Amino acid sequence: MAQPNAKPAAGAMSKVRQMSLLLNDMQIIDLSHTLEEDMPIYPTHSRYFHTLWDSFETGSRALLYQLVINEHCGTHIDATAHFLREDHPEHLYMAETPLSQCSGRALTLDLSHFKDTDLVTTEMIQQWERTHYTIERGDIVNFRFGWDRYWEPRSVSLAYSKSWPGLSGEGAEYLAAKQIKAVGCDVLAIDSYYAEGSPAHYALLGNGVNIIENLTRLGEIVGESFMVAFPLKIKQGSGSPIRAVAFK
């Protein structure tokens, strides 16, 4: 049996070296919004604060800021614990969520023509599969609504958080049945602003499918890409801010 750190045979290339060369040959796309005060937030969630703690002017040897942030501020991922009670079989806090849930092949559907009242249906997803890629177990599925065009400070505009489209409950159930890892979107929540009872959240999280919200630049990865969206390791976390990126 080969040792973990054994040198590859002559002429062979290690998996790490192969991966390094492959990634260096791909474009890396930042799918995350910048964390800043006054950014859009879900109407009922607490705000983000970035407060000066110490600086050179106050005699410190270093510059320090304190962050006060809701787990669901900015570009973030929902743990299944966000909507599920502890006795639910799919209940996992953020620190318990396998990192394998947060990376993989990403398939991004372009629905930038949607209005705020539109919903993604099962039929729409199946039609996309017939003409593009078949959604498979372990995939991450993103919906590009183009809503990031409204991402502005709240003091400038509330358009981003006023209303938005989303995924229907039956569409979410269809994806969950395919045993995908996660669903991403460039809106405040995967359920439409007009949805009642958060059916998409319950269908996805209830089947162990994580949700990634407030993504941006999805237009640059429409189709197939490789995505990474690692969370902070928060004990009893219902979610976490992330730095989501895609390789294409």
How would you characterize the overall build of this protein?
This is Cyclase family protein. GO terms for molecular function: arylformamidase activity. One of its GO terms (biological process) is L-tryptophan catabolic process to kynurenine. Pfam families: Cyclase (PF04199). The chain is globular, with a radius of gyration of 20 Å. Helix content is 16%, strand content 22%. The chain starts with 14 loop residues before the first helix and ends with a strand. By secondary structure, the protein is of the alpha/beta class. It has one domain (30-40, 70-247): Glucose Oxidase, domain 1, CATH 3.50.30. The strands form 3 sheets. A 9-stranded mixed beta sheet has the order 1-13-11-5-7-9-10-4-12, covered by helices on one side.
Quick synopsis:
The chain is of the alpha/beta class and 248 residues long. It has one domain: Glucose Oxidase, domain 1. It is built from five helices and 13 strands.
